[in-house]
Amino acid sequence: MTIKFYWRLDPAAEPQRGEPSARPTSGFLPRDVRTAGLTRYDYYAQVARAAAVTGFDGLFVAYRPESDDSQIVAASVARTAPRLLLVPEFPSTVGSAVYAAKEAVSFQRATHDRLGWALVGNADAEDAARTAEFLHVARGVHGTRPFDHEGEYFSVKGGGFQQPLANVPFPPVYLRGDDEEALERSARLADVHLLADAPFDELRSRIETLERLAIAAGREVAAGVVLTVTARESDEEAADAGGAGIAGSYDSVAERIATLYAAGITHFVLSASPSLEEAYRIGQFVLPRVRAALGGLRTAA
Amino acid sequence: MSIDFYWRLPTHGCHATIRRGSYDRGDWSPLKPGNQSPGLTPDGEDDGYRYIDHLAEIAKAAELSGFIGGLIPSFPNTDDPWTISPLLARETKTFRFMIAFQPGFLDPVHAARLSASLQRATGGRTVFNIITGGGGPSQLWWGDSFAHDDRYGRTTEFLDIFRGVWRGQPFDYDGRFYQVEGEHLSQLLAREEIPEIWFSGSSDAALQSAAKHADYYLSWLEPYAQITDKFARVKERTAELGGEQKCAIRVDLVARPTEEEAWHDIRIGFENVSDATRAQWRGQPTDSVGASRQAALRPTEAKRWEELVVGKNLWGGFNLLRGGPALGIVGSYEQCAEQLDELIRRGADAFILAGTPHLEEAYRIGEEVLPLLGRTAAVQPLLEAAE
Question: What is the pTM assigned to this prediction?
Fold first, then answer.
């Protein structure tokens, strides 16, 4: 199985970076020639390009109601970061499923099919039901014409896209959650199920459950993990950095990722702050070590 | 006195010439040699360009030739304006993205967040064209089953909330269609300007809603007496509510060095209209009052192009040549400018212009027609009054 790495951009993190409203207005001696046209979106684009040039396969954009919207950010960087899969996170409550599907079709058409959808929510029963219906309707109008649906949250009559909007690949869907209900939902609806980091045996057991449920649903669902990473040249430096998540030397972080891969995880959504510098660090020093280790595994097999 | 001129991004594909209806820019027709975005390599392979690359060219052309921005239409078979605008934000500098948008499709608080984020991405270049009409089967296609007048009620509530949360303080609203509690934009987002709102709709329900929330009242071009009356009514209605309403017209032009050349293109275009196209434009059901007014021109029944000349330099068969409204302006550069002057005299404060092909015609109209505005006697008093 191919391993996929995604960098995760958080529009609310490093809030002063590139932010015109954060610039000092007085008492600042160096002449500041930054114009109003230079904004935080230039920073988002730079993070996206950093992820692309350092060998990530995709970019997740976190949903942060207090900051820039994930779908606007994803589209705004798409044309300056070729090759990357762009995966905005958003809840199914943002609007109509038909409209979301239509926006997705345009994104796919414009970017050579580089959109993914990461649906996030507050994981209560109502949210789960709405997300399930949202995906059913979005996939329905996307792949069927005419499509009719009369449901709890959405109703459509004679729906479905015509050429050339038809036959565009539906974005891969990423769902998350660690309980059995979440795994069951993903077995029916997701392309990739994302887990939180956990001890190896727990992860292994969740992945087995996911595989069993997916087989029962007649589908294939890949497993992924969302990780915060603190990687430094040595374990000591990583410990000193006091970072969250997986912390350690480049070698030990790479080893941990390889272990997760061995447990059946193929999609890795990684993040660290500051986004730009850490994308370079991890892309340059950790990912090649993981790839080398996996190459070794394959050779050994 | 300054008038805002917008261009249009044809989100449903474009043709290389108004003379022929085949959509050879974009992928709305099968890919063949000569097609652009996508095109074919010399080996006959897809060249990898996508329609967004052509839209980027049009936006850049409009920006460079003096248009303030462009309308980005939204129909079942177009690419989507909310996706196009951020995709093109970073490769344009001044071009304003006028997003055609139906309030029923997005949650109003989310729409406010999207808009503020797009304002930040573009340096305040977001404009809304709020659409509420349409109706018929296409509303159900979108998953929207609201009745005509209910939709305007919903639009009003949508915009109440849109503006309400933008103040940045917890906002409560208890409406018929929406209820929100304590919602607001963060300080970061609320600091952006609320986008200018352009409003369409010809019915009474629409006029009422427009009077409350619109910065510009937008109409397709209609016979001049009709549009003069409509603008007067809109301005009057808004004045009753203590506001001031600007009015705008969306119209296609065929502008050529001479009038003969302009009509020549219309004649060839008309003669190339297929029976299938006529049938397609005939009797599409709608509950939009504006669309019904245009249909009353009956271009699909015409046997000769001359039958559709409805006034000096006015032709009522544009919908046979490309998707959209029927009435447009045809003439020399000077005549086109005179018609626009006349519409300004009759109450137009802004325009959305278009011409086919959209890329080349953006330059032509920007360079040849717009500089001629304001020269006719009709608008001189307006210009003097403004000074």
Answer: 0.93
